[in-house]
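Reopening: Mechanosensing system component YbdG still failing for me.
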Amino acid sequence: MNIRTITDSSSPIYQWTYDKLIEWGVSAEQANLINLFVLLGLLLILLGLVDFIVRKVLVNILTSVASKSTIKFDDYLVSNKALVHFARLIPLIISIYFIPIVFSGFPTWIAPVRKFVDILLVFGWIMLIRALFRSVRDHLRTKRGFQDKPLDSYLQVINIFMFFIAGVIVFSMVTGKSPWAFLGALGAASAILLLVFKDTIMGFVASIQVSTNDMVRVGDWIEMPKYGADGDVIEINLNTVKIQNWDKTITTVPTYLLISDSFKNWRGMQNAGGRRIKRSINIKISSARYLTSEEIEQLKKIQLLAPYIVERQAEIDKYNMETQADRSMPVNGRNMTNLGLFRQYINRYTQHHPKIRKDMTMLVRQLQPTEHGLPIELYMFTSDTRWAVYEDIMSDIFDHLLSAIKYFKLEVFEAPASDDIRSLGLSSGNSKGGVGLQVRQSEG
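Support: Ran it again with your exact input. Result attached.
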């Protein structure tokens, strides 16, 4: 151990305490050790007092001022502990000036201890800068143009860059070599680094593409059935995207999947202000037929349909007269059908509905008949895109149509249920049972 003597000492404080110990009869070697512990203890007490004053007094005062200020940015500095990280730097900076004094008797310890404090300072500055960037992020989120941007992804990239620079600086301090030597060795291991940080690199590239192309924003409703995601985007990070599903579960998918896989974004629907209805009523085909004159007169009582029936009947009568159609057979000439009038009624009913967008596509059409009947499809858009309101509007429309269909002598297709089959069996059994009972009674 290299122990300095009193003649080597360059610190007046150290030399004064050393002289006092020698006067009290302490040996030179013991005087150096005692002097080290005494001065180190005094330094720790001093740093503790400074830390207490700065953190408990200065930080509390600044926090109180920030809470009363009308400026929001200082509140973000407080919530992200920027003042606390700054307060931690002050004792470290002070200790740098006292290290040569405390370790004057052990000159070989000065450089390692100073290096250790410098490393702590590097990470202290990194934490302070990180808190500042987080405060900037929180402040930008209050701005209208940044609310839907993946700011967390950008912040994570900045954090990775800062910690990388800090690592290079610490490596240079510990080894005493130039940072460029470390970067050169890092280049040789680039293949391994690309493998280790593959997801981070892919996420970073995906975040840039997602933001540049405006593919997804925080708050968007997206669907990714392959990964069980169907809900609102609540967070976009460098590596992951968090989606809160409608059942309140959270689905997390890698950010790069937004680029490599397909997904549905409902933002266009929300921005357009109209949500599509695309639902069918399956009509029993055997219930479709021509209408008689009495049935047509009865349907004229439907106010929405009356003008159309009058106009259409005049057009049909004129055509049949011009073509001299034999009306003894309904197939000859032109006729009104209950299915056609029902379709026209749906068209007029939805056109008069206050919650249906008239400036968007409105269709009431027949689809290909199937074994489940003839589908009459409603294809239109509601004026309210909110999920619950949209479901109410659609349900009200179909409640009305399913109730009105019987006035057109039509039937909705329904597959036979077990109760239907059971009722047929019971009817047949009761008929046979009744006959058997009569026979037994006559025999008796």
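The chain has a mean pLDDT of 80. If you still see a failure, please send the error message rather than a screenshot.
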